Amino acid sequence: MVPALAQTGAMASREYVGTTYRYLRLTIVGLFTALIVSVIWQIGQDGFLRSSISAYYYAAPRSIFVGALVGVGAALIAIKGRAGPEETLLNIAGMLAPIVAMVPTPLSSARAGGCAGASRCVPEAFVAGVDNNMWALIITGVGALIVAGLVTWRAGRLARLRCGFAAALWLLVSVAFIGWRDAFLSSAHNLAAAGLFVLIAVVVVINARHAQQFREPPVFRARTYCWIYRAIGAVMAVAAAVALVMTILSLAGSMLPHAWLFVMESVMIGTFIAFWAVQTVQFWEIGVPGSD
Fold first, then answer.
1. First to last CA, the chain
2. In 3-state terms, what secondary structure has residue 69?
3. Which candidate, 64, 71, 66, 72, places its Cα nearest to that of 41?
4. Which residues have C-beta within 8 Å of that of residue 79, sequence separation ≥ 6?
5. What span, in angstroms and rounded, lies between the C-alpha atoms of 55 and 192?
6. Helix axis angle, 157-179 to 181-209, nearest 10°
7. Cβ atoms within 10 Å of 126's Cβ, excluding its own
8. pTM here?
9. Which SS3 state, helix, strand or coil, does residue 291 take?
């Protein structure tokens, strides 16, 4: 009887873990959906598109924008990916998401009310909030790294390496914020957003490579998942290339369509949601994927 009870308890425990894993994944889709709905609602209220989705930080969707990205960041760190590159990339992406949320996109000098000689900047009224939030992230990061170090000390070389990458990113962000604050305010949002998107794109590529790892995944055949991931990755690659070209043209002073960045960000968020939803379906019963 005792072994039977132990087996029943182990099965129940696995079910609880599996349910938590699924709900955590669904939470990411839900948070981004809330952000999309909030932005669409504001577009209806305004009657026009702002220059980017990030620019809605300065409008009514601000709370949803910040909350969604912070929540997604925490979930990306908490969710277990394949041991190796995928797990590391998800952890770093999760660290970048709060920076995208808490450091707003810079505005033109005219819209920001003056930028002390610069063409773009974060409006002065929002700088104190950025300072508060970044100090909170930096100080909390110290505690998180200490805990991570203690947990990974005996967990193997890969786990310690992931912790090292996280510590390096924390140090880089901290030094940039403290030592070059003005440059940080003007560029951190865009750099963090670009890094977040690139990391997720690499995760998509990894999943395309390993889509046939399981013989009978749910809903679709393994080969179908492979082609879906490849298609999503191709759209991401094209969007990244177009965004890079448009950014270079913008920096060179070329006149570009008003909402080009809004379109690019929409494509990036849309492809991320598509990837995450498909992967959630694929791993619904399988659970945490195996190692690379």
1. 39
2. helix
3. 64
4. 21, 24, 25, 90
5. 15
6. 150
7. 17
8. 0.84
9. coil
Classify 120 as helix, strand or coil. strand
Residue 283 and residue 210: Cα distance in Å, rounded?
12
Q: What is the pLDDT along the chain (292 residues), one digit of tens a residue?
A: 545 544 555 555 667 777 888 888 899 999 999 999 999 999 999 988 888 899 999 999 999 999 999 999 999 988 877 767 888 888 899 999 999 999 998 887 777 777 766 777 888 889 999 999 999 999 998 988 888 888 777 777 777 788 888 889 999 999 999 999 888 998 889 888 888 888 888 888 887 777 666 655 667 777 788 888 889 888 888 888 888 787 777 766 677 777 888 888 898 889 989 988 888 888 877 666 654 4
The SS3 of residue 173 is helix
Q: For residue 257, which amino acid is it?
A: P
**Integer Cα distance of 169 and 50 in angstroms:** 31
Residue 108: which residues within 8 A CB-CB, separation 6 or more?
119, 120
Distances (CA, A) of 244 to 38, 199, 216: 27, 16, 39
Give the separation between CA 210 and CA 284, rounded to whole angstroms: 16
Query: Dihedral sign, CA of 62, 195, 73, 35?
Result: positive
Q: Which residues of 239-270 are buried (b: 16+ CB within 10 A; e: fewer)?
A: bbeebeebbeeeeeeeeeeebbbbbbbbbbbe
Q: Which two tokens stand for residue 135?
A: 């100090």
